Amino acid sequence: MRIDEYRKFDGLGLAELVATGDVTPRELVDCALAQATSIDPSINSIVRLMSEQADAQLTDTLRGPFAGVPFLIKDLSQDYAGLPTASGSRSLTDLPMPEHSTVVQRWLDAGLVIFGKTNTPEFGAKGITEPAVFGAARNPWDRSRTPGGSSGGSAAAVAAGIVPVAGANDGGGSIRIPASCCGLVGLKPGRGLVPSGPSFGEPMHGAAVHGVVSRSVRDTAAMLDVLAGGEPTSGYLPARPEGSFLSRLDTDPRPLRIGMYATTSVNPNPHPQAVAAMEAAAKMLTDLGHTVELLDAPPYDDASLNREFLLAWFTYLAWEMDEVKRKTGCGDDKFERDTRIMAALGRSASGVDYLEAVEGRHVHVRALATYFETFDLLLTPTLAELPPKIGAFDLAKPLELASELLLRSRTAGILRYTGIVDQMIDDNISWIPYTQLANVTGRPALSLPLHWTPEGLPMGAHFTAPLGGEELLVQLAGQLERAAPWAHRYDEIV
Q1: How many CB atoms lie within 10 A of CB 454?
Q2: Which terminus of the chain has a lower count of CB atoms within 10 Å, N or C?
Q3: What is the DSSP letter of 117?
């Protein structure tokens, strides 16, 4: 199989070729490796090749809906037994994992051939992918820009045609942000539908979940079928629809009532192309018979939600750093400065502050539940700005020097009262103010590649659904993909 032929198929399409004997799994893996050799030096999406593990899989009989399809897992919370999960951190590059994560085992059981791990920011703590230990991942559409984060390496690899679908996870937008940056389908499942075990119970109190980024809606739906369902260590026994998510793909949803907004308290003036992405989606929806209404404001307190989200995030990061130190015996020098700043901010919060942030989620759950009494879905842009340039969020030199001094003197709690905090909040949230809602409330959400800028950059449209709304999102995504196909777009990437 030629590389140009390989790139035109989605994951299920490649699996069909294997099933009919038109290609072998070895040929597909060779195509994936050849494409990686050709394009990855310019996008830095893969941080660890797993040739030995892939070769071992290829000696077995592969079964499952994706039998023989090459696959990449994210190098964060997707453990492969015997290999480190570096999590974008120098502190973890040499610590092998004792067992497969449940999602990794489910991918193996689905017949996928895992041949590498993808780039991610340190501990997934940013919406960009620029870890010091591995270097920045780059957007295949414009290599001067980020592919997003924290699943930026996976998204870059999929958009560039190395694999048709790749492992991802999402604690504040980390599936949907890179899906938007790279022109992909990115579905964040609702809380509890996909397990995080066996090593983790509910990362970030359930805000973080596993999924994929893909080029086709049917791959996303089929992957949800592979991943969904509880396990003995799960905190829930999730409800699933009758039949499969994939079986719902060809059924159009009933006419829906959808509210939309783009202006937020964090970013009152989103980029015109962000608004254009939302409005393009609204026009398509209207043409398909749905009703779309412009809202005066977000149907929840977005300023409060983002403050609480960041406080919980920073505190969780402080705990995670301490856990890594305990496991590895490493010192602070093994962590990036920005990570240490965020962790210091987390440590400066009291237990009551943290609990208030976590318990405050229910206020937003109720606000969203009230909204869904009237509307079926919530539409926004996925991003409020164009994908940022590589290095755009590096601290200015004076702030960098000041933060280093405070960190070394162990007085970093003072950072709460400096401009560093404001800059980090702005960097972390102002260009991505829409995605955290679904994580905080545990609702499913989806980014679709429905708009490209005049310069050729993709910009996603973002849908948030009510509890258990994955089936509806799959149906609507299938309808929109049929109405405005995007598969031909990937041919533009060289």
Answers
A1: 7
A2: C
A3: E
Which tokens is 355 given?
Answer: 């609990």
Residue of 89, 91, 150, 244 marked active site: 150
Please confirm, yes or no, whether 150 is among the known catalytic residues. yes
Torsion of CA 52, 30, 12, 457, to 10 degrees: 110
Given 45, 74, 216, 403, which residue is catalytic?
74
Count Cα neighbours of 465 within 13 Å in the Cβ-side half-sphere: 21
Query: How many whole angstroms separate alpha carbon 405 and alpha carbon 412?
Result: 8
Q: How many CB atoms lie within 10 A of CB 184?
A: 34
- Each residue's pLDDT tens digit, 155-177: 999 999 999 999 999 999 999 99
Q: Which residues of 72-95 are buried (b: 16+ CB within 10 A; e: fewer)?
A: bbbbbbbbbeebbbbbbbbbbbee
Prediction pTM value: 0.96
Which amino acid is present at 480? L
Q: Token digits for 281?
A: 């989606």
* Partners of residue 464 on adjacent β-strands: 378, 445
* Annotation says 74 is catalytic: yes
DSSP for residue 428? I
Q: Catalytic residue among 174, 234, 244, 447, which?
A: 174
Residue with tokens 């109405």: 483
Is the CB of residue 106 less than 8 Å from the CB of residue 226? Answer: yes
Q: How many CA atoms lie within 13 Å of 356's alpha carbon, on the beta-carbon side?
A: 9
